[in-house]
Amino acid sequence: MGLPLPKIPFCLLFLFILPLAKSASDYSTLVYKGCAKQDLSDPTGVYSQALSAIFGTLVSQSSKAKFFKTTTGSSQSTISGLFQCRGDLSNVDCYNCVSNLPVLIDKLCGKPIAARIQLLGCYMLYEVAGFTQISGMEMLFKNCGGTNVAGNGFEERRDTAFSTLESGVASGNGFYTTSYESMYVLGQCQGDLGSADCGECVKTAVQRAQVECGSSISGQIYLHKCFISYSYYPNGVPKRSSSPSSSSISSPSGSGSNTGKTVAIILGGAVGVGFVIICLMFARSLLKKHDGKIRMYKQFHAFWCNISLSFYGYSWLYMCSFVQITETRWLLKD
Question: pTM surpassing 0.70?
Fold first, then answer.
């Protein structure tokens, strides 16, 4: 008959689950807002009802589609609206992204006759009947990185990547992303734009990026019907995560965009270490009541560290080393 397996305290079982939690993705980061200057005149509340219906429909559809356009109301109270998610977002992330937009529109714009909110992963817009239309090629927003890249064939690499993007997005269902010699580019057209118009829109956005951003290390150009972004990584484009929710590539070194993730990792590690110490103190109180079980505990600890290392990498090896020191001081001294 084999030795009985040690009973694992619930707190240690919970600890195994902690590393599975993912940090929040950046797809819900605000890029820009566009709010019409004229507010809705709505004494009877008919526009508010139509707007609520539009928002409800768009959010509902975002769980199963990356783009959806609809119209509600009648006569002069008609309101049109649409949403679009970035092409590499999963359905769950698309829904989570779009779900934020009605609240943001109300918070940032109020109730104007037209509004558009752009996040990194999605956007939503609405407009009442009769609102002045603008060209699909009109630039709504630009963002150019503060660092300039001089020489080293930067312009040639960027323009080659842009050329690939122009041809790829038109033949890739309106969304395309690729990398070329340390340059990462992404482009997307509005979902109801035809291939030819999509190609022209992206071409215009590329030309605006070349003029507006020049030799900037990164840039984003948002036109009314399409957008593009590019980033130059001197040390090579980082590998993309296999997780759909982390599909976007981080900004180039020096941009500071990873600070929040670093802080989250440090805090998570501190919480994990503190939790281990609490569990060990609990285990110590149990072991004192059962003479001869310390060797079994050591065996369990070794097993736990090996499993943790296999699943979660070398960061957990360091935690196991810390735990071992703690055991020596608090558990094994008896």
Answer: no
How many of the other CB atoms lie within 10 Å of CB of 326?
16
Give the pairing type, strands 183-189 and 226-232.
Answer: antiparallel
Q: Report the run of H or E that residue 22 belongs to, with start and end.
A: none
Residue type, 274: G
Task: Please say whether the dihedral angle defined by the alpha carbons of residues 81, 85, 87 and 92, taken in this order, is positive or negative.
Answer: negative
Count Cα atoms within 13 angstroms, Cβ side, for 124: 26
- Backbone angles phi and psi of 83, in degrees to 5: -135, 160
Structure tokens at 73: 């109301």
Interval 261-277: pLDDT, tens = 444 444 555 545 455 55
Type of residue found at 171: S
Helix (H) or strand (E) holding 180: strand 175-180
- Other C-beta atoms closer than 10 Å to the C-beta of 254 total 11
Distance (Å, rounded) from C-alpha 195 to C-alpha 183? 25
Query: End-to-end CA distance of the chain, in Å?
Result: 30
- What are the residue ranges in the chain where pLDDT is below 70? 1-25, 240-334
